[in-house]
Amino acid sequence: MKTTRIILISCLVLVCMSSCSLSARIKRADKRFAIGEYYEAGEQYRQLYRNVSSKDKPLKAYVAFQQGECNRILNNTKASNAYKNAIRYMYFHTDSIVYLRYAQTLHYQGKYKEAIKQYDIYLHSYPDNYVAQAGKYSCMQMEEWKKQKSRYEVNPVKAFNAKRSSNMAPALLNADGDAIVFTSNRSENKEKKGKNKVRVSSVTGAASFNLYSARKNAAGQWEDIALCEGLYSDEPSEEEESSIGSKQSSPAELGVCCFSPDGRTMYFTYSKPVNGQDLGAKIYSSQRASGEWSEAQEVKLFSDSSITVGHPTINATGDTMYFVSDAPGGFGGKDIYMAISDGSTWGEISNLGPKINTSDDELYPYIRQDGKLYFSSKGHPGYGGLDIFYATPVDTTWEIYNMGAPFNSQNDDFGICFIGQTEDGYFSSNRKQKKGYDLIYSFVLPKMEILVEGIVSDDQGEALAEGVIRLVGDDGTNIKTQIRRDGTYKLKLNKNVRYLMLATSRGYLNQQQQFATTGLEDSHTYQQNFMLSSVAKPVKMGNIFFKFGSWELTPNSEDGLNALIKLLNDNPNITIEMAAHTDMVGNNAGNQELSLRRAQSVVDYLIKHGIESERLTPVGYGEEKPVVVDDALRKQHTFLPKGQVLDEAYITTLPADQQEICNSLNRRTEFRVLKTTYNLY
């Protein structure tokens, strides 16, 4: 009996000790989370989750949720499983935010249908939450967004992207784009032996980030990638020592920089943990002299030193800084702020407001010379993760636009910069990276090339090498160019212009074409061929038809008749003989009368549509002028000999089917030029 009591007491003591130990471990993990050491905290929560009993659902749920938060902040795909476990153990009884976080991680993984379900659950409790609304909308629009095309070409930059490391946030030193500084935790920063052995960040679990520079050589290739040295000291300041109590034990983190308009001052994000505690990121500045950067000094923005600031960008005039901060009074997460310089200090700090900032994170601002503000956000409608947006100032607010693909993916896309005023530049992304490494990508907007090309030939298909093309546009374009020997031509065009083209050649009728380059979003080549009619010989008009045995024009003759009207308008100084011909069927007198009436029907149509009657002479030839076979007809009908006259004597020698072909060739409407001087004198 006594032994049993002793055993029971011992078990109770062990349970109590275990419980106390578990509680202490959770407190330690919570402390690391509170000071921003997400990697270390995440590892502790992961181990704790295994140790917490499934019967203690509230504690199990809490630990799972905290693990999810660490993984989400670190862009670890395991976050979704952690949130799923938190929901399994009913964390939503404590806070339904778990549904929003779970939805976001599913969204980032491209599981849009599943994400929508979780967004809906959260929106049921918080129908006005903008981040949830934006997330759901994004998932619903994703299929349409994927169909949208862009002319931009995006490729990773091998010169910047070291293996098994993150490389990100490029910043160009000048408008020429031949000098760059970027953030990296590459192997050069990972000494493996001695006192300088690799120091792993308790925040990310990876090697510390630093700033690296590179320049282009004469061949336009990036080279001389090197660490930006001398920017900081490993020793803590007196202020830091007094507040923390000991020297730093974790590596400093440098990154996300920008430059003053003259390129002499660099502003960058700087975090220097002391005694294992993250003091929060600050913005520092360094001056360049004699090709080297001076030791950096902190840029004081807030009097409260506990406020985190980072990701600076400077406008074209150098008097406004945009940056990221978690300052009190924001809209949630990290917000983008601006500060105005009086020449010596930065003041007049203001939040950019709810058009830019959401309850989630807005990061990596970049201001262009034209005033457009680029930034990355998790809160606005997007493809997933961080998306790149740009904002245009309108009066006292902003208009926000998602940059779309190929800039944005379902992963994190951020840290954009442009080369001068061009549409080329660089940005960062961890797309298609199993281990989540960030890579630097280049983007190029190929020059939009609009061309018009074609061939100028006669009605037999022979090239007119002596022809001329004249191009006139409503933007003032007036070009005259000689046609090549093979009859071809090619001309460059401008966007959103209405053009008139005129093809001419000695001894041939002019021909015009009109078109416009409006609405084009990509390179395009217009095909404009010209077939010029000879002044010296009759020109057969195709597609002019009459009812059988009648001079009444059929409706399908309109295209041919309108083409003739256009030709006459293109050549306002010619007069023509409008002639009609019949086949050998019927008597000569009847055929003569029928052909004349058909010619007159064509003339009447032309007059009705604005052609002066003085320019038109109708003639009916009946069957008097049969066709003479030329090269074109010989190619089309191989049984016909070149030079053969298709008269009745020849046609009657042919089989019935070939006779009908010959009769159809003789039944024709054509014109010939009489004068080329109408209204000239």
Structure overview:
This protein is an alpha+beta fold and 681 residues long. It folds into 4 domains: 26-147, Serine Threonine Protein Phosphatase 5, Tetratricopeptide repeat; 153-444, Glycosyl hydrolase domain, family 43 (Tachylectin-2, Chain A, 5 Propeller), CATH 2.115.10; 450-532, Carboxypeptidase-like, regulatory domain (Immunoglobulin-like), CATH 2.60.40.1120; 539-675, OmpA-like domain (60s Ribosomal Protein L30, Chain: A). The chain is 26% helix and 28% strand. It is built from 13 helices and 33 strands. Strands 6, 7, 8, 9 and 10 form a 5-stranded antiparallel beta sheet that branches. Strand 31, helix 10 (588-608) and strand 32 (616-622) form a beta-alpha-beta unit. It is elongated, with a radius of gyration of 40 Å. The N and C termini lie far apart (139 Å).
SSE layout:
Layout (H helix, E strand, L loop, with lengths): L1 H33 L3 H14 L5 H17 L5 H10 L8 H12 L3 H14 L4 H18 L5 E4 L10 E6 L6 E6 L25 E7 L5 E6 L10 H7 L8 E7 L5 E7 L10 E8 L2 E2 L3 E2 L10 E6 L5 E6 L9 E7 L4 E6 L10 E6 L5 E5 L9 E8 L2 E6 L10 E6 L6 E5 L9 E6 L5 E9 L9 E6 L4 E5 L5 E6 L4 E7 L6 E6 L7 E4 L2 E3 L6 E2 L17 H13 L4 E7 L6 H21 L7 E7 L8 H6 L11 H4 L4 H11 L1 E8 L6
Helix pairs in contact: 1-2, 2-3, 3-4, 4-5, 5-6, 6-7
